[in-house]
C-alpha cells in the first residue's frame, strides 16, 4: 500500500481516537486556544505548558511535542530546547511550526537553532517559511502559485535532507517530502486563509497523528488530509470566517472514513 | 431551606446580574478569553490582570479573585501571592483552580504553596487534581467512574478540612464539600470534555457566584449548577464541539429560574 | 465632501481590501485571537509580535502599529516603546488602546508614558479611559449617559490638543475629535458590551483603516463605523453573546457599501 492514501489516513484517525495520545504544545499566544480545541476535536489530549520548571517533566509524559514559534520570546526558546531534548531522549516525535520564519531575523535564527539543536521529526510551514529555513526565500517569494509549487518541491526536499525532518509546505497545494518520498495534497479551502491560526491548527493535526504513527511523513500527510477535508466540509456550511471557525471544530470531531475517501486528493 | 437548591441557585443568579460584581482573574493563556466571556455571559464583570505592579490594586477593587494555574510561570506565582494577600486582607473570596496539579512537580508544589500562604475560599478541580492536592493521587487515578466518586467523597473532605476551603471536584458527578456539608451535582454534558477550558469556565462561574455569596460552598454549588445546566441546554442545539462552545455562552446569558428548576439534579 | 460619510467609509474599506496592509499588533493576552481575526475579516493582514528582539524589525515592515495595554507587563512596555519609535521614524501610524487606564496606577502611568514618548496618531478608548488619560476621571465616572457625552466632548478635545492624537471615545454614542473637528457616531449594539474584546476589536478596525488613510481621525471614524455597523448586522442574527461573536466576523467579512449607506448614523 502507498504510504499515504485515504484509507491509511482514516485508519490513523481511528487509532488516534482509540489511543487518545497526550500531545504537549509549546505554542503562541494568538492561537493557543484553537490549537487545544483542534487537538481535542481530533480525539487527542492536548497539554499546553511552557514554564521552564516543568516542560521536561511534561514532555516526558507526552506522546508528541509540538513547538510553534508564533509569539516567541527568549524564555520560551529555552523551554522549547529543554522540552525538545527530553523528547529526543525518549524518542518522542518533535514537530516544528516555524511561524513567521523569514519575517524577522530573530524568528529565522531561533527556528534554525531549534532545528540544529534538536532532532525534529517534521516541519510544517507555508512556502515562505520553508524557503526561509532553507536559506532561499528570495527564490520563492513573490512568484506565482504554480511557479511557487515547482520551486517548493526542490526547496522542501533540500530542507528535508539537510535536517533529517519530514517537511510539509502547505498552501493551495501542499508539498510533503522527506527528501526521498514526495506527495502533494490538493485539499483545503480559501476560507483557511481568512482566519488566524489555520497553519497552527494544521500543525496540531500533524502532531496528533505523529503521536500514533512513527513514520513522520505519513503522519503529516494523514493529519493534513484530515484537517483540510474537515475545512472543506466546514466551508460548505459557513457564511463567513466566523461560522467557518466554528464548523471546523464540528467537522473535525465528526470526520469519518467515507468522507475522507470521498474527498481526498493525494498526488504522488 | 437547604444550602443549595434550584431555587437558591436561581436567586443567586438574579443577585449576580443585579450587582454585576467585578471578578479579578489571574489565569492561563489557553482559556483566558473563554473565562472572560463566561463571566460576562453570567452577568458579572471580568478583569484580567497579572502584572506584579498592579495586581494588588486590582484585587483591592474586585469582589472576588480567581487564581488558575493552567500555564503558570514563576512571575505569575508571585503576582498570585500578592493579589491573594491583598484579597485576604479585605475579606474578598479567593478561588483556586489547580489545573494540572499532579501532572508535574512544579504545578503540584505551586498549588500547595498558594494553599498554604493564602486563605482560599474554594478549590475547584477535577478528581485527579483534587486527589493530587490531598496527596493521594495514587488512590484515585486510573480507577473507574463509580469507584472514583466513592473515593472522592473522602479525599475531598480531607482536603477541605486540611485547608479550610470548600472543595468542588467536578466530573460526570460533582462532589462538593466543606468537610461538614456535602452534596453531589449530576448535571453537565459529555461535550464539556471535548472542548478546552470547561474546567476553567466552571471555576469562573464559581468565582462570579462567590462574589455575591459569602458561603463559598453554596456559591460553588450554585455556580456549577448554572454552568452545567447551561451546558445541557447548549448541547441540545450543538452539532459538535464548535457549535457547543458558541451555544454555551448563549445559554449562560439566557439562563433563567424555570430552566434551572426543570433540570437541577442536586443530591445531598 | 465631509471628512467622514458612509460613502467615504465604504471607499476606505475598498482600499483596505485591495491593499491588504500589514498591521502589527502588540496587544493583550485576552483578546489577541479576536484582534487577529477581526483584522483578517476586514481584509488586512495582522501580525502579532512582542519579543523585544524583533519588534523594531516587524514594525518597520508594517503599515500601522497598534498598542493595546490590556494585560501589560514591564517587558511589553519596553517592546511597545521600541516598536513605536521605529514606526514614528518611518511615519507609520501608531494607535493606542489604553485598556483599563484609570483602573490602576500602573496602567494609567504606562499609558501616559507611551503618549509622552511616542507620537500617537489615534487613541481609542471608552469614556472612563479617555477621561483618565486627560486627568479628569472624577468628572466623568458615575454620571449618567447624556451627561457623560456632554463632558466627553470637552475632555476628548483637551486630550487631543494635549497629545496631538485623534481621540475616539466609544460607548453608546462615540465621540471622535482631533481638537478641531468633531463628530459623533450612533451605530453599534448593546451586545458589544456583553462580550470581551469589543473595544480591542474596535481599535483593530481603526488600525486597519489607519494603515490606508493618513488622516487618523477620518480613519478612526470609518473604522468604527464599519465595525459598529457589522455589529448591528451580527446582532440581528444572534441568539446571545456566543452567536453574536461568531456573526460579527461573518458580518465584517461581508460588509459592503449599501449596508454602510443604509445604516450609518454620523453626526457632525
Notes on the protein architecture:
The structure is a homotrimer of 268-residue chains. Chain A is an alpha/beta fold and 268 residues long. Chain A has a single domain, classed as 3-Layer(aba) Sandwich (UDP-N-acetylmuramoyl-L-alanine:D-glutamate ligase), CATH 3.40.1190.20. Chain A has twelve helices and nine strands. Chain A has helices spanning 6-19, 32-42, 55-61, 74-90, 105-117, 127-133, 137-140, 145-163, 198-210, 216-237, 241-254, 257-263, and strands at residues 22-26, 45-48, 64-68, 94-97, 122-126, 166-170, 174-177, 182-185, 266-267. In chain A, strands 2-1-3-4-5-6-7-8-9 form a nine-stranded mixed beta sheet, sandwiched between helices. In chain A, strand 4 (94-97), helix 5 (105-117) and strand 5 (122-126) form a beta-alpha-beta unit. The longest helix of chain A is centred in the last third of the chain and has 22 residues, at 216-237. The model of chain A is unreliable at 139-147 (pLDDT under 50). At the A-C interface, helix 5 and helix 11 of A face helix 2, strand 2 and helix 11 of C.
Amino acid at each position: 500500500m502507498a504510504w499515504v492514501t485515504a484509507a491509511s489516513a482514516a485508519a490513523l484517525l481511528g487509532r488516534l481516537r482509540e489511543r487518545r495520545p497526550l500531545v504537549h504544545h509549546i505554542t503562541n499566544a494568538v492561537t493557543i486556544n484553537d490549537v487545544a480545541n483542534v487537538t481535542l476535536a481530533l480525539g487527542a489530549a492536548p497539554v499546553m505548558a511552557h514554564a521552564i520548571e516543568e516542560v521536561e517533566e511534561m514532555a516526558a509524559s507526552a506522546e508528541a511535542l509540538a513547538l510553534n514559534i508564533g509569539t516567541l520570546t527568549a524564555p520560551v526558546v529555552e523551554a522549547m530546547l529543554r522540552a525538545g531534548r527530553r523528547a529526543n531522549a525518549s524518542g518522542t516525535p518533535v514537530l516544528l511550526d516555524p511561524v513567521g520564519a523569514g519575517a524577522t531575523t530573530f524568528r529565522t535564527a531561533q527556528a534554525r537553532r531549534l532545528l540544529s539543536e534538536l532532532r525534529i521529526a517534521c516541519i510544517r510551514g507555508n512556502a515562505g517559511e520553508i524557503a526561509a529555513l532553507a536559506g532561499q526565500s528570495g527564490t520563492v517569494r513573490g512568484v506565482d502559485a504554480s511557479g511557487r509549487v515547482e520551486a517548493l518541491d526542490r526547496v522542501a526536499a533540500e530542507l528535508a535532507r539537510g535536517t533529517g525532518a519530514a517537511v510539509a509546505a502547505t498552501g493551495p497545494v501542499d508539498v510533503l517530502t522527506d527528501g526521498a518520498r514526495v506527495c502533494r495534497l490538493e485539499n483545503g479551502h480559501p476560507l483557511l486563509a481568512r482566519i488566524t491560526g489555520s497553519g497552527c491548527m494544521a500543525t496540531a493535526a500533524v502532531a496528533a497523528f505523529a503521536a500514533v504513527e512513527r513514520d513522520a511523513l505519513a503522519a503529516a500527510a494523514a493529519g493534513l488530509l484530515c484537517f483540510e477535508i474537515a475545512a472543506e466540509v466546514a466551508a460548505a456550511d459557513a457564511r463567513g470566517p466566523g461560522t467557518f471557525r466554528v464548523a471546523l471544530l464540528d467537522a473535525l470531531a465528526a470526520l469519518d472514513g467515507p468522507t475522507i475517501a470521498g474527498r481526498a486528493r493525494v498526488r504522488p
